[in-house]
């Protein structure tokens, strides 16, 4: 039995039996070191340290903290109110507002789960009160939440850039147009639902007065993504520095303008961010050690050759990658999937003329769809927790309609990669 079979069998077995991903990766690495090599075990600790010693990864805890501050500090609520004032007169307008508000919140927090929790906790009760079914409301926020990792800044995009050693800013820029298209594209189903159930849901009359009041209240929230993204793309600060700026701006707005942030809440935000960051970093470090083992045994190169042999052209490559990533997204979280698979696929891209940036965005969208699919889809559990219901309430025909639209757009991104690469190619280097 080959070493690669033992490694992957060990990893998959531990994963299936409920062992955490990071522990499964670490244990599989130890199996190799003890049973198939004379390399000292100390190398695992060295790989852990090397993986963690990354300036780009400092953005992760900062964006998590920023997302928590905005969720608890009143920013999410004002975004929902504003987009409801703009779109509430349309059929399904409140559901459309959920997508647009999630896109804006994603441009601040960089986290899918945070977007579902922040926007969903505010808009789901309102949707149900105004005649939308609970199943539709939860499917809407679960689907809209994955925009949080497509619209930059994005934590998975930071991980991808770090894993391949490419520019975070370029990958961020690549996600802008696809993120906007996904928000608008999936919202089409909200309009269809609104037209079909026009007599059952509340459709507000448009009011310039309400719009003016909502805009005045939300102006500080709207400025935040402008400052963050404008600073990154304008070369004023790096993505990591922008995350620190987001925290500072969020603290000032939430505490001194909206007056909705107490020290007790801030303590809870930092505690939650610490826990989440530790989980992510443990996965990153463990995946780095596992990747070292795969590289040493030429597993990555052999799998890349096998993939190239199976995919005779770019079309076949995209089909294989999409099927694999959709399956992986159903059973594995975004971060370990990127850390394990990104280097493998990157070794093949040159054969098909695909840029690292285009592939990175496609990969994140693929895995983002996985966040909304059972059995491991994190967004589903967060959405279900909003109403304390079972997963079957969230996983329904509305969810599959949203994800079908997302999948159609994903196909478009692969067919026309210039949608992704246009902004990075025009950016000033």
Keywords:
about 425 residues, 21 helices, about 0% strand, mainly alpha
Give an account of the 3D structure:
With 429 residues, this protein is an all-alpha fold. It has one domain (54-261, 297-426). 79% of the residues lie in helices and 0% in strands. It has 21 helices and no strands. The chain starts with a helix and ends with a helix.
Strand content: under 5%
Estimated structural class: mainly alpha
Mean pLDDT: 85
Overall body shape? globular
**Tell me about the biggest sheet?**
none
Q: Note the total helix count.
A: 21
User: How many structural domains are formed by the residues?
Assistant: 1
Order of helices and strands: HHHHHHHHHHHHHHHHHHHHH
The total strand number stands at 0
Q: Poorly predicted ranges (pLDDT <50, ≥5 residues)?
A: none
- Gap between N and C termini: 49 Å
Return Rg in Å: 22 Å
Helix content: over 70%
Q: What's a concise summary of this model?
A:
The protein is mainly α.
Secondary-structure blueprint of this entry?
Blueprint: H1 3-16, H2 21-35, H3 42-52, H4 59-72, H5 75-87, H6 93-109, H7 112-129, H8 134-145, H9 155-164, H10 168-196, H11 208-233, H12 239-257, H13 263-296, H14 299-310, H15 314-331, H16 334-352, H17 356-370, H18 378-387, H19 391-394, H20 397-415, H21 418-426
Helix pairs in contact: 1-2, 2-13, 3-13, 4-7, 4-12, 4-13, 5-6, 5-11, 6-7, 6-8, 6-10, 6-11, 7-8, 7-18, 8-18, 8-20, 9-16, 9-17, 10-17, 10-20, 10-21, 11-12, 13-16, 14-16, 15-16, 15-17, 16-17, 17-20
């Amino acid at each position: 039995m080959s070493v690669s079979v033992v490694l992957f069998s060990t990893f998959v077995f531990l994963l299936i039996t409920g062992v955490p991903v990071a522990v499964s990766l670490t244990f599989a690495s130890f199996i190799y070191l003890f049973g198939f090599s004379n390399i000292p075990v100390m190398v695992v600790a060295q790989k852990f340290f090397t993986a963690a010693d990354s300036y780009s990864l400092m953005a992760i805890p900062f964006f998590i903290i920023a997302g928590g501050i905005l969720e608890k500090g009143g920013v999410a609520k004002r975004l929902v109110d504003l987009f409801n004032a703009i779109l509430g007169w349309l059929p399904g307008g409140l559901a459309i507002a959920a997508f647009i508000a999630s896109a804006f919140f994603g441009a601040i927090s960089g986290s899918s789960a945070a977007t579902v929790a922040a926007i969903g906790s505010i808009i789901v009760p309102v949707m149900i009160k105004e005649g939308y079914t609970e199943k539709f409301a939860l499917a809407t926020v679960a689907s809209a939440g994955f925009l949080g990792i497509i619209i930059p800044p994005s934590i998975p995009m930071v991980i991808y850039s770090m894993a391949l050693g490419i520019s975070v800013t370029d990958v961020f820029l690549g996600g802008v147009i696809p993120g906007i298209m996904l928000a608008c594209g999936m919202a089409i189903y909200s309009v269809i639902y609104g037209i079909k159930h026009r007599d059952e849901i509340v459709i507000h009359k448009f009011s310039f007065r309400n719009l003016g009041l909502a805009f005045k209240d939300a102006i500080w929230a709207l400025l935040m993504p402008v400052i963050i993204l404008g600073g990154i793309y304008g070369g004023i600060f790096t993505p990591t520095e922008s995350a620190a700026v987001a925290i500072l701006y969020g603290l000032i707005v939430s505490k001194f303008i909206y007056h909705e942030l107490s020290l007790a809440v801030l303590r809870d935000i930092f505690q939650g961010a610490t826990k989440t960051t530790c989980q992510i970093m443990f996965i990153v470090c463990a995946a780095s050690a596992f990747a070292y083992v795969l590289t040493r045994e030429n597993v990555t190169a052999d799998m890349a050759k096998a993939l190239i042999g199976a995919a005779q052209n770019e079309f076949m490559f995209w089909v294989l990658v999409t099927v694999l990533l959709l399956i992986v997204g159903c059973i594995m979280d975004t971060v370990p999937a990127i850390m394990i698979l990104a280097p493998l696929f990157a070794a093949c891209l040159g054969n098909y003329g695909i840029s690292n940036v285009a592939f990175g965005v496609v990969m994140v969208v693929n895995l983002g769809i996985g966040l909304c699919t059972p059995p491991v889809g994190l967004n589903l559990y967060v959405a279900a927790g909003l109403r304390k219901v079972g997963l079957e309430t969230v996983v329904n025909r509305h969810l599959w309609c949203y994800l079908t639209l997302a999948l159609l757009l994903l196909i478009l991104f692969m067919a026309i990669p210039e949608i992704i690469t246009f902004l990075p190619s025009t950016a000033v280097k």
